[in-house]
Amino acid sequence: MAQTFAEDQYGRKIDRCLTDTLLKFGGGLALGSVFSLLFFKRRAWPIIMGSGFGIGVAYNNCERSLNSSK
């Protein structure tokens, strides 16, 4: 049976967090861009807000993942 070290588990959690952050940031950026182009006369605030929401959700997921006891 292969032995897994705590450092390896922590590294995998960090990798998942970074991937999740990039995906959620990109999704928020894309969604904010669409809303900016279609509804808000090309303002910057929907893009910034969408990106911020994406990063906030990813941060919450990462915090929960890193603080779990498993």
Automatic annotation (TrEMBL):
- Isomerase recorded as keyword: no
Q: What is its main location?
A: mitochondrion
Q: Which GO terms describe its cellular component?
A: MICOS complex
Its transmembrane ranges are 22-40
Q: What does this protein do?
A: Component of the MICOS complex, a large protein complex of the mitochondrial inner membrane that plays crucial roles in the maintenance of crista junctions, inner membrane architecture, and formation of contact sites to the outer membrane.
Subunit-level organization: Component of the mitochondrial contact site and cristae organizing system (MICOS) complex.
The identity of this protein, by name, is: MICOS complex subunit MIC10
Organism of origin is: Anopheles atroparvus
Taxonomy-wise, where does this protein's organism fall, top ranks first? Eukaryota, Metazoa, Ecdysozoa, Arthropoda, Hexapoda
